[in-house]
Design brief:
The protein is α/β, with parallel strands linked by helices and 758 residues long. Helices cover 37% and strands 17% of the residues. The strands form 6 sheets. It has an 8-stranded mixed sheet, with helices on both faces. A 6-stranded parallel sheet has the order 19-20-18-17-21-22. The radius of gyration is 34 Å and the shape is globular. In the N-terminal section; belongs to the glutamate 5-kinase family. This is Delta-1-pyrroline-5-carboxylate synthase.
Length: 758
């Protein structure tokens, strides 16, 4: 039994079909019955006289989309007063203009004064027009809408409450969207907020409380409250330190300072929070979000239902660890402390991590075995991904060797002076290397990526957020634990954070105030999704690894089969594996060509014929569906070209600017290929598999970049650094360098400090 305005009624929230409210945003997609509350600021125009028709049409479209998915949608709307105000103003202007014209006998009108309009009269004039507008909009989507007007007194009568409940259930059963509003034409004047002391008492004095009450009475899964702010802030929005609260928990009210209410409407944010907490206690999940922002209002409702990080989500379940926002702040602070350490101290941390990888080998392999067993039992990973997921003693030994290389090469990476200039007398300028800031590395099925990337971040002084795939959860957990153990050597444990919350990748890509660079490590689809989702954060990486090997007419028979076998068969799931083999036309039906085909058959490589290659064959292999395909397995495409120039053109048209190889003994042809192929890595008589940070001597890599800005190819420590300028003067001002000033610019280059090459 709950009491609203001291009148008891039965809600029985524990008997709801779905039980408690949703604990996580990701569960909102399971919401069946949804109430959307439209605040006055959402529905009305900026002049408070009339409706925001475009915004309203977008909301109706989203509600219709969800209704047609089989959900049960209800709308609690404002707007009758604003719509009525517009109509009454028009009528008053017209009436006064006519009377003035009749009285004066003149066609020229004087300024007409508009009297103050009483809100209940405006509501009476606006209700019918508002509902007619909703009906017209919903009709466009073949959906019927029905109007229900209520007051607080209707909830005091048990019979009226039952009638309302029955009416709403019947409308939902008939696939009709109820449009609910307080009957402002007869509602009494607002009373003081006497019931804001707790969540156990609530009365219908505004549409926030009405929406909360209906949501609980109708056992609704989700209540979406749309306002003119992004959600709930820890201090009034617009203040310097205001931060959007992603998840709000009961009991957090003390940490929030409420500001003034919106420009229109009865309720403010305090009323919304109170109503939201009441609904949450009754078993309904709540999200408060912005319904007026032009960039997001067109999909805000559907985004919320899809579980995206929009607005403030009210939850009764607090996570065991920090939120991802808190982890980002911890990584930022830890990274700055890390960058301030001496180079030898950062190197010590990496050496310690390398030792832990070998010392704790048994524990790591045991955790990895759990991941492999779960993946195999669930059958959710293809064979190439299972290979990437697997760790071994040899892999861990190679990782340790790579980490020691990073430690040895990182001695002067941060703070290295790369340019010195004497701008004027006693005014010297330096450009020095500094960390980028906070990196977000998203990887899947590659637990060995975690220590590699962590070591590079430590060496370059960057804070790091890691988001691994759930298929490698056990492996990632122990590897991250060892990384933090190594970081604790110098008190910078928080610099590397593993995101274990249910944060979607798309939501992480929106944290532009916490993250400075995103580096995806995984499938081409993952990289494309991240590049699409990233808002205001640069993404470094490659979406595809379509690597070519071109066999020239002057190629060595001994080298061809070795290089092709290594490029395709050594590790076909790698992004630097051969995917398209280009063969000069003159090599067809030669012993060299036969040797290539025989080798591929022995290695069980499935061959797809390119269009030109297929035209030369009577019985050809399956013709390729696309020349722009990354197989990631023992498959490849063979195509024929007429010259090295055509090979270059083919690579530019169908390649991904990753790694491309020529096999030839002709120096001139090789140099033409090396100079003209516009890819991150271009090789001569060497396997594509050399495109790797470890093999380049970088120790490890955070990935291979095919972008043309900042870093390209295997990205090691240097790719994780940027620069800043240091100017040291002595009472220098720009006015001294004016035409009649006492100083002149020198701009002399100065020698750089000697680098530590040990």
């Amino acid at each position: 039994v709950r009491c609203w305005s001291n009148i008891p009624f039965i809600t029985l929230p524990l008997s709801r079909a779905h039980g408690k409210s949703f604990a996580h945003r990701s569960e909102l997609k399971h919401a069946k019955r949804i109430v959307v509350k439209l605040g006055s600021a959402v529905v009305t125009r900026g002049d408070e006289c009339g409706l925001a028709l475009g915004r309203l049409a977008s909301i109706v479209e989203q509600v219709s989309m969800l209704q047609n998915q089989g959900r049960e949608m209800m709308i609690v709307t404002s707007g009758a007063v604003a719509f009525g105000k517009q109509r009454l103003r028009h009528e008053i202007l017209l009436s006064q203009s006519v009377r003035q014209a009749l009285h004066s006998g003149q066609s020229q009108l004087k300024d007409v004064a508009i009297p103050v309009l009483e809100a209940r009269a405006c509501a009476a004039a606006g209700q019918s027009g508002l509902m007619a507008l909703y009906e017209a909009m919903f009709t466009q989507y073949s959906i019927c809408a029905a109007q229900i007007l209520v007051t607080n007194l209707d909830f005091h009568d048990e019979q009226k409450r039952r009638n309302l409940n029955g009416t709403l259930h019947e409308l939902l059963r008939m696939n009709i969207v109820p449009i609910i509003n307080t009957n402002d034409a007869v509602v009494p004047p607002p009373e003081p907020n006497s019931d804001l002391q707790g969540v156990n008492v609530i009365s219908v004095k505004d549409n926030d409380s009405l929406a909360a009450r209906l949501a609980v009475e109708m056992k609704t899964d989700l209540l979406i409250v749309l306002s003119d702010v992004e959600g709930l802030f820890d201090s009034p929005p617009g203040s310097d330190d205001a931060k959007l609260i992603d998840i709000f928990y009961p009991g957090d009210q003390q940490s929030v300072t409420f500001g003034t209410k919106s420009r229109v409407g009865m309720g403010g944010m305090e009323a919304k929070v109170k109503a939201a907490l009441w609904a949450l206690q009754g078993g309904t999940s709540v999200v408060i979000a912005n319904g007026t922002h032009p960039k997001i209002s067109g999909h805000v409702i559907t985004d919320i239902v899809e579980g995206k990080k929009v607005g403030t989500f009210f939850s009764e379940v607090k996570p065991a660890g920090p939120t991802v926002e808190q982890q980002g702040e911890m990584a930022r602070a830890g990274g700055r402390t890390l960058a301030a350490l001496q180079p030898e101290q950062r190197a010590e941390i990496i050496y310690r991590l390398a030792d832990l990888l070998t010392d704790q080998r048994e524990e790591i392999l045991l955790a990895n075995k759990k991941d492999l067993e779960e993946a195999e039992n669930k059958g959710r990973l293809a064979l190439p991904l299972l290979k990437r997921l697997s760790l071994s003693t040899s892999k861990l030994n190679s990782l340790a060797i790579g980490l020691r290389q990073i430690a040895a090469s990182s001695q002067d990476s941060v703070g290295r002076v790369i340019r010195r200039t004497r701008v004027a007398k006693d005014l010297e300028l330096e450009q020095v290397t500094v960390p980028i800031g906070v990196l977000l590395v998203i990887f899947e099925s590659r637990p060995d990526c975690l220590p590699q990337v962590s070591a590079l971040a430590i060496a370059s002084g960057n804070g790091l957020l890691l988001k691994g795939g759930k298929e490698a959860a056990y492996s990632n957990q122990i590897l991250h634990h060892l990384t933090q153990e190594a970081l604790s050597t110098h008190g910078v444990k928080d610099a590397v954070q593993l995101v274990n919350t249910r944060e979607e990748v798309e939501d992480l890509c929106r944290l532009d105030k916490l993250i400075d660079l995103i580096i995806p490590r995984g499938s081409s689809q993952l990289v494309r999704n991240i590049q699409k989702a990233a808002k205001g954060i640069p993404v470094m990486g490659h979406s595809e690894g379509i690597c070519h090997v071109y066999v020239d007419t002057d190629a060595s028979i001994e080298k061809v089969t070795r290089i092709i076998r290594d490029s395709k068969c050594e590790y076909p799931a790698a992004c630097n594996a051969l995917e398209t083999l280009l063969i000069h036309r003159d090599l067809l039906r030669t012993p060299l060509f036969d040797q290539i085909i025989d080798m591929l058959r022995v290695e069980q490589v499935k061959i797809h014929a390119g269009p030109k290659f297929a035209s030369y064959l009577t019985f050809s292999p399956s013709e390729v569906k696309s020349l722009r395909t990354e197989y990631g397995d023992l498959e490849c495409c063979i195509e024929v070209v007429d010259s090295v120039q055509e090979a270059v053109e083919h690579i530019h048209k169908y390649g991904s600017s990753h790694t491309d190889v020529i096999i030839t003994e002709n120096d001139k042809t090789a140099e033409f290929f090396l100079q003209h192929v516009d890819s991150a890595c271009v090789f001569w008589n060497a396997s594509t598999r050399f495109s790797d940070g470890y093999r380049f001597g970088l120790g490890a890599e955070v990935g291979i970049s095919t972008s043309r800005i900042h870093a390209r190819g295997p990205v090691g420590i240097e790719g994780l650094l940027t620069t800043k300028w240091l100017l040291r003067g002595d009472n220098h001002v720009v006015s001294d360098f004016s035409e009649h000033g006492s100083m002149k610019y020198l701009h002399e280059s100065l020698p750089l400090p000697q680098r530590n090459t040990n």
